[in-house]
Amino acid sequence: MDIEFGIRNVARTVSFSTDEKADEVAAHISQALKEGGPIDLVDDKGRHIVVPKDALGYAVIGSDTTHPVGFGALGGATD
Prior knowledge:
alpha+beta; three-stranded antiparallel sheet; 1 helix; 5 strands; about 20% helix
């Protein structure tokens, strides 16, 4: 699952992937915002991403990360 956080007053986003499902991530963010604590998620490499609730501008919870196989149509010359 790809996640992107927009941080207030910072031009660059925080992007990472996690093994959690979209619903789990959304619930975790909502709970942290309600309780007033930081958002603490673990990425797919085991690192903690901690964002103070007041610093969060937005969160984009993307679709599951897939690993495509093959090169697809590259276009090009015909014989």
